[in-house]
């Protein structure tokens, strides 16, 4: 199909061009094959989960490939209430709202100071912050558990919020201080000459100018906080009613496996997947560039 | 003009520093200290034992088994993921029609890029549970598909021959999309006229990829390599949720060893921290090695 269309569009080609086009026509069919194959590999398992969430257990067991006999939204309702997916969703939202606010506030202020002000030990503090990116979180797990417990924050949402924020600061400070450094010096100097204080300069001038960078890093942190598993697993062991979505899904997978309630499991997975995928489809450009920008810097 | 900057520096820097120092830096420092003790539980006292944990660790067969699996992940995952990522990114950004622009993407580039990135926005927990069901021996997608063509599929995650490779495949699956987009963004930054010049000189597409695209992308590939290596040294969530290291430790990884030593059946915090320290040095040396190796290559090209 592509071949025909290309021919139709092209002007009469010189001979070498035709040879090249033929070479690339074949390669196109070939490469499109791989592209389609990977697209199917990526979407099919997710689509299968969505379709299976409408089946009843009999259909899932006897014909995993088949189409559901009816749209059984009761599976979703069961997952939402009985398997507490709704509650876990709420918990995740609360925790992420808090941790994201903390991360952005602390990350932006620290990055701004590192990027625009001279002071003693600046380099030392900066590398102390940014060095945290290099360490595997596993190393900190055991002492972290006791630090959080001694602070009285074990099994609490504020505990999760400060810990998420702490472990996001290295990347956030690294990314944002690079961003603040690119903002023009002259604007800041002019504002200071006009009698603008340092605090007002930050909130009224610098923050608005840094908006694209702030959005990128906020998206990045949102996804990583929302998908956090190991930290809540260690710090939110006791109180099941406060657990976040990732934990809830993991325990749902275990318990539904025992009970054989596969339709409930698939419905739970779908409920957890769809909002994130929906938001992603809407904001794909920003999300993709937000997630890749940090690596390219 | 510089008047009054110190109140701002203090107000802006001290709260983040406190938070970071208490919840990030201090645990890391303590971990090194705990790794030299025999701390074994919530109430028991911790005695200083020097490097005992580390000598025991080097004789621990289970640890070596886990490290070996991580080594396989380290050797396979970055290579396969980067190769697939480069291949798809090349197709999407310059595999298309030879128009006047010289190099353009294939049709539907946007759709592919959208779809490939799906696993990146999903939580690893969702990915692990989805694939556990895909691999399910009786009602899983994979064996249903195999059954449709008359093949009796194995019990994938329950079979020591396959379990580890099943997890490895998911690790690759979940990462490729990100690198397609990352490499794609880097390719877009390459000036078009370089390609036009080389194509006018009659170079084939394969040659342009090998001689132009890859060298110009080398910095990005190097970053990708480090990120994937760190991911390969971890692998904890996928393994814990898909196989829990089994069957018979065939898919165990070092992160799971550490987690189980500290938080599962026993609470040997000293020993677990020693495993953490080993992981730390492994991660560090892998990143340093990756930087070194790729830097040498970069000089060759430029």
UniProtKB/TrEMBL annotation, chain A:
Transmembrane segments: 26-51, 88-114, 126-148, 160-180, 201-223, 262-283
Primary subcellular site in the record, as a coarse category: membrane
Pfam families: BPD_transp_1
Topology in membrane: Multi-pass membrane protein
CC annotations in GO: plasma membrane
GO BP of this protein: transmembrane transport
ABC transmembrane type-1 domain span: 89-283
Cellular location(s): Cell membrane
UniProt-listed InterPro entries: MetI-like, MetI-like_sf
Keywords from the UniProt entry: Cell membrane, Membrane, Transmembrane, Transmembrane helix, Transport
PANTHER family per the UniProt record, alphabetical: ABC TRANSPORTER PERMEASE PROTEIN MG189-RELATED-RELATED (PTHR43744), SN-GLYCEROL-3-PHOSPHATE TRANSPORT SYSTEM PERMEASE PROTEIN UGPE (PTHR43744:SF8)
Family from the record: Belongs to the binding-protein-dependent transport system permease family.
Name the record gives this protein: Sugar ABC transporter permease
TrEMBL record, chain B:
Signal peptide boundaries: none
Gene Ontology biological process terms from the UniProt entry: transmembrane transport
Gene3D superfamilies assigned: MetI-like
GO cellular component: plasma membrane
Subcellular location: Cell membrane
Entry-linked PROSITE patterns: ABC_TM1
Residue intervals of the ABC transmembrane type-1 domain: 67-290
Keyword annotations: Cell membrane, Membrane, Transmembrane, Transmembrane helix, Transport
Membrane topology category: Multi-pass membrane protein
Transmembrane segments: 71-93, 114-131, 162-182, 224-243, 269-291
InterPro entries per record: ABC_transporter_permease, MetI-like, MetI-like_sf
PANTHER family xref list: ABC TRANSPORTER PERMEASE PROTEIN, DIACETYLCHITOBIOSE UPTAKE SYSTEM PERMEASE PROTEIN NGCF
Entry's family note: Belongs to the binding-protein-dependent transport system permease family.
This protein's name: Sugar ABC transporter permease
Lineage: Bacteria, Bacillati, Actinomycetota, Actinomycetes, Micromonosporales
């Amino acid at each position: 199909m592509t071949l025909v269309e290309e021919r139709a569009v092209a002007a009469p080609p010189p001979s070498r061009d035709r040879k090249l086009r033929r070479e690339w026509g074949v390669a196109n069919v070939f490469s499109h094959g791989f592209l389609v194959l990977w697209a199917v590999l990526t979407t099919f398992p997710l689509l299968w989960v969505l379709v299976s969430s409408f089946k009843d257990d009999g259909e899932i067991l006897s014909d995993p490939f088949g189409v559901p006999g009816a749209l059984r939204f009761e599976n979703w309702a069961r997952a939402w209430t009985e398997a507490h997916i709704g509650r876990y969703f709420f918990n995740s939202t609360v925790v992420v709202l808090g941790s994201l606010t903390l991360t952005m506030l602390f990350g932006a202020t620290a990055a701004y100071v590192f990027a625009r002000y001279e002071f003693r030990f600046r380099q030392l503090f900066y590398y102390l912050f940014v060095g945290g990116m290099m360490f595997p979180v596993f190393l900190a797990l055991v002492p972290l558990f006791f630090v959080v417990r001694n602070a009285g924050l074990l099994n609490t949402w504020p505990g999760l919020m400060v810990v998420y924020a702490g472990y996001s600061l290295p990347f956030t400070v690294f990314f944002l201080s690079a961003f603040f450094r690119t903002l023009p010096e002259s604007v800041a100097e002019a504002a200071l000459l006009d009698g603008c204080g340092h605090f007002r300069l930050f909130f009224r001038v610098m923050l608005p100018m840094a908006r694209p960078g702030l959005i990128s890093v906020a998206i990045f942190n949102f996804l990583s906080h929302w998908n956090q598993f190991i930290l809540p697993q260690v710090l939110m062991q006791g109180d099941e009613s406060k657990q976040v979505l990732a934990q809830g899904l993991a325990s749902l997978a275990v318990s539904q496996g025992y009970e054989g309630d596969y339709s409930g499991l698939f419905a739970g997975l779908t409920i957890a997947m769809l909002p994130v995928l929906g938001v992603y489809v809407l904001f794909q450009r920003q999300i993709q560039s937000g997630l890749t920008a940090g690596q390219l810097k | 003009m510089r008047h009054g900057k110190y109140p701002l520096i203090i107000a802006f820097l001290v709260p983040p520093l406190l938070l970071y120092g208490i919840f990030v830096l201090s645990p890391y420092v303590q971990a090194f200290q705990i790794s030299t003790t025999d701390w074994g539980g919530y109430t028991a006292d911790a005695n200083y034992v020097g490097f005992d944990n580390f000598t025991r660790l080097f004789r621990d067969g289970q640890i070596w088994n886990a490290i070996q699996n991580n080594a396989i992940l380290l050797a396979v995952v970055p290579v396969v993921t980067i190769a697939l990522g480069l291949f798809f990114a090349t197709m999407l950004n310059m595999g298309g029609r030879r128009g006047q622009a010289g190099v353009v993407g294939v049709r539907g580039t946007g759709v592919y890029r959208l779809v490939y990135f799906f696993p990146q926005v999903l939580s690893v927990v969702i990915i692990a549970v989805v694939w556990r069901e895909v691999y399910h021996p009786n009602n899983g997608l994979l064996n249903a598909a195999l059954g449709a063509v008359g093949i009796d599929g194995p019990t994938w995650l329950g079979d020591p021959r396959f379990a580890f490779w099943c997890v490895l495949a998911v690790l690759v699956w979940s990462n490729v999309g990100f690198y397609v987009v990352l490499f794609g963004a880097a390719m877009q930054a390459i000036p078009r006229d370089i390609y036009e010049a080389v194509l006018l000189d009659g170079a084939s597409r394969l040659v342009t990829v090998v001689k132009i695209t890859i060298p110009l992308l080398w910095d990005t590939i190097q970053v990708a390599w480090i990120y994937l290596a760190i991911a390969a040294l971890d692998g904890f969530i996928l393994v814990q949720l898909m196989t829990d290291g089994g069957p018979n430790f065939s898919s165990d990884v070092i992160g799971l060893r550490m987690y189980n030593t500290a938080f599962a059946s026993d609470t040997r915090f000293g020993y677990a921290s020693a495993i953490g320290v080993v992981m730390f040095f492994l991660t560090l040396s892998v990143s340093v090695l990756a930087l070194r190796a790729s830097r040498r290559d970069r000089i060759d090209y430029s």
